[in-house]
């Protein structure tokens, strides 16, 4: 008897080390939806649980996962999938110096060829300077281990020490962050830079490329940064080049922002199905 079922093809696998954002717009939920949408078997190891507070202007309530439990998740995941099956990881919100040290140890285990860092310094609604010790630990311990880093406007200023007023400033910051980290950089202007386009700058030490797409509104959408870095991660897991991954991710996020989901929270959420 012949079967009509297609020969199964093993999917690429990718891990996100990230926080849960309860409303499903950002964090691990956005990462897993992005992985799935791009045909990658997704794994999430949770670092914290964020629940916005509707009684307090939707500010963040932050609950870290116990360090032992974070280490156990990473042990389970790296043991289940060796470096041949799982060599690509995305780092999202870590949230504390202790978690940064736990994740640093796991990265130093050497399993991951692709380490995509979304340097979440503060989230929408948080004040800059909120968590200086965490920011400093991220720069000192995780940034040097990254192979790809995706700072937004604020994070690019913080990581580079440069002020960014326009695309030329974004280019200078991307070059500086590459020099500091050795990683490929996609510095995101988003809605923060003036003009009709949302402009990002890619730099990997050789190629400098401006990625532009028409802005969809003037308000930042929740999950855009997470989904962009997750899409880069998925594409790298499938074997794309860093620049190819950046281009695909930009198109994926632009479609997802166009198909955004609104709620009672003050920001819309990106819909990963927007590119279908
Ligand atoms: O968008 C950054 C982000 C990442 N991860 C988690 C978050 C947020 C923002 O709210 O809650 C868990």
Write a compact overview of the structure shown.
With 276 residues, this protein is an alpha/beta fold. 37% of the residues lie in helices and 21% in strands.
In percent terms, what proportion of residues is strand? 15-25%
Total beta strand runs: 9
**Quaternary assembly:** single chain
Terminal residue distance:
35 Å
Structural class by secondary-structure content: alpha/beta
Can you offer a commentary on this structure?
The chain is of the alpha/beta class and 276 residues long. The protein has one domain (10-275): Ribokinase (UDP-N-acetylmuramoyl-L-alanine:D-glutamate ligase), CATH 3.40.1190. It contains eight helices and nine strands. A nine-stranded mixed beta sheet has the order 3-2-1-4-5-6-7-8-9, sandwiched between helices. Helix 1 crosses helix 7 (224-237). The longest helix has 17 residues, at 242-258. The protein is globular. The structure holds 3-hydroxy-5-(hydroxymethyl)-2-methylisonicotinaldehyde (PXL).
Blueprint of the fold:
Blueprint: E1 13-21, H1 27-37, E2 41-53, E3 59-64, H2 67-80, E4 88-91, H3 97-108, E5 114-117, H4 132-142, E6 148-149, H5 153-160, H6 167-181, E7 184-188, E8 197-203, E9 208-214, H7 224-237, H8 242-258
Parallel strand pairs: 1-2, 1-4, 4-5, 5-6, 6-7
Antiparallel strand pairs: 2-3, 7-8, 8-9
Bound molecules: 3-hydroxy-5-(hydroxymethyl)-2-methylisonicotinaldehyde (PXL).
